[in-house]
Every structure is written in structure tokens, then in C-alpha cells.
Amino acid sequence: MQTAAVPGLAPLTAPVEVIDVDTAWQQVLARDRAASFVYAVTTTGVFCRPACASRRPLRANTRFFPTSEAAMAAGFRPCRVCRPAEPSRDPLRALREHIESNLDRAVPLAELARVVRLSPFTVQRLFKRHMGVSPLAYQRALRAGSLRASLRSGANVTEAIYDAGFGSASRAYEDAPLGMTPARFAQGGRGERITYTSAGTHLGWILVAATQRGLCWLSLAGTRAEAEATLRAEFPAAELRRDASLSRWVEAAVKYVGSSAPETPELDLRGTAFQLRVWEALRRIPRGETRTYSQLAREMGMPKSTRAVARACATNRVALLVPCHRVVGVSGALTGYRWGVERKQRILSAERT
């Protein structure tokens, strides 16, 4: 379709890549963040990203270009709202938003790469460096967090599974890091077998518990009874069975404090996507070092989330192996520790020797 030329604009040139204009127009109408082209408006001489918040133009006045460079070469100038000629100011945020808005389907790396105009390799590396997990793991954690919240609120299991973005019940059972089936999780672990053992150490009594997926609980206490009470409070309806073979993980936990290259078991960590990120960041703090909550938040690329980071540290269910004891107050003082401040001091002293 021919349109009137804009005074002062160079003649429009054909884009290097072939664009399906009908599909592109639908993406403009939908403000599709994944679209990898720009569109120009002949009546204003401006070009935009498809996701731009500006008012949609008439179809007859719209042209499509594969790149910002192609649009500028044709004489159009970049929009001041979406700034299409500039790199994405926060590619990580754009990636997270795209994943979070598409929990009901798989989001391939190639699609994420188009969102931020980076290579799939760069997207994977960028996301894992800042988030601590891959885009796929992040999506799974978000789904699992939604599923847990729905189940805890009493929602029907089937409805909770689909509302959380799982395409089928089998997918939820495979992907959700609950350590048990969704139905059993909703019932406080009812019908689920969790094995455990405890032993006295120089750090006090240590209790470890595991599901089939890995270690799900490690608590520190003054007595065996106190240690076992923490497990019963976490899984009040589960079948708890003592298993002496887990004693090797008690020993591993003690060695983790005193060794620079400790053996660690497979962990079955459960939490929101944010909690999982914080716990992963804790595991990256070198032995013998500490961080303040604000330092940890900055290292995660979230400097304004200090309080949220502190809350996530406080909800850590696997002591020692997820070393929340390595986080201290801004003054360097030992802040509250779930398993006792004096014990925290002993652990840090042992790690510094």
C-alpha cells in the first residue's frame, strides 16, 4: 500500500530481512516484547519498538524495519519514549518480565535472545551470573512458588497445578521442587516418607532429613529432642523414619565448617524464586569470609532488596550447607541467627582457622 511521503525523509528502502507485515502488525498491536523489529510511522517520522507505550498508529502509516539502523538509514528518528536506537537499559529486568508473563509455556533461549537483542549464549550467561540460576530453572522456581502458595491456601490440587502454569499434572510432579507430590505437600507431608537422623557434635545436636530428591532439612539444637521437634514442626503430617545411614551427612555438615573442599549432598531446597536466588548466593560466599546483608543484595544485583535478602536468609532450612551464618550486620556484629548467635560465633571462628 502506498502512503504519502514525509517531507525531509529519504525514500524508504526495503529491509534486509523479510518481515511478515501482517504478523508484525499484530505484534505491534499486542505490544509484543519478544518482537525483534522496529516500526516507523510515516506521518511523524518516528520509529519505535513494538512494545512502546505510545499510541498505536494507523496501519496505513506504518512501516517495518529489521533494525534501528535500517530505520534511521531510511530517514526516521528514534522515539523518545522507548528509545529504540539505544541498547536495552536493563536486559535482566526485561528477561525476568518476559519469563514471568509466560509461565504457562516453555520460553526458549532463542526467544529470550530476541527480547533483549543478545545471543542465546549471552542471555544464558547474563541470567545465570546475576540470578544464580538458568532462565529455565527460574521459570520452574516461579511455577513451584505459585503452586506452593495455592496449595497452602487450600486450593484444589488440580486447579493449583494449572493456575501455576504447568501444562499437565505430570509436568508439575516432575518439575515442582516440593520434595513430594503437590497433594502431599498441601497436607503437611501426609503420606510422605522423610528419613532423618541426628547426632551430637561440637556444634550441638545436628539433625538431617531427606526426601527422595535430597537433603531437605538440617537443624542445630541443644538437645536431640529439640532437634527432632524442628523437623516435626516443618512436616507435621509426614511419616518420619529414623535412618542411621544419613549419619554420613551429619559428618559432612561438620566437615563443611572445617574444610575448604567439603563433600555436599544433593539438596532439596524449597522456596520462592527469590529465596532460591538468595540461598544460591549464600553458597557462593567463600569459607572464612562474611558479607553484610546489603553487600549480598548488591552482589545479587538488587541493592534495594536488603530487607528481603535478610528475610530469605532467616528462612533457610538447611543450616551450614547453605551458610546463612556468613552474613552479618552492617557494623560487623553478629545479628540474630536461627540456631543461636553463640553457635554462629563458633561456626565462623572454626571457618576462619
**Multimeric organization:** single chain
| CATH homologous superfamily label of the largest domain | Homeodomain-like
CATH level 1 name of the largest domain: Mainly Alpha
Helix/strand class: alpha/beta
The main β sheet shows up as: 4 strands, mixed
Q: How many alpha or pi helices?
A: 15
Determine the mean pLDDT: 77
What's the β-strand tally? 10
Beta-strand share of residues:
5-15%
| CATH architectural designation of the largest domain | Orthogonal Bundle
Given the C-alpha coordinates, what overall shape results? elongated
Unreliable spans are: 1-17, 154-187
Examine the coordinates and then state which fold CATH places here, giving the name of the CATH topology of the largest domain: Arc Repressor Mutant, subunit A
Q: Give Rg in angstroms.
A: 26 Å
Q: What helical percentage do the residues reach?
A: 40-55%
CA-to-CA gap between the ends? 77 Å
Descriptive report:
- This protein has 15 helices and ten strands.
- The protein has 353 residues and is α/β, with parallel strands linked by helices.
- Strands 3-1-2-4 form a four-stranded mixed sheet. It has a four-stranded mixed sheet with strand order 7-6-5-8, with helices on both faces. The protein has a two-stranded parallel ribbon with strand order 9-10.
- The N terminus is likely disordered.
- It has four domains: 86 residues, DNA Methylphosphotriester Repair Domain (3-Layer(aba) Sandwich); 94 residues, Arc Repressor Mutant, subunit A; 66 residues, Double Stranded RNA Binding Domain; 80 residues, Arc Repressor Mutant, subunit A (Orthogonal Bundle).
- The radius of gyration is 26 Å and the shape is elongated.
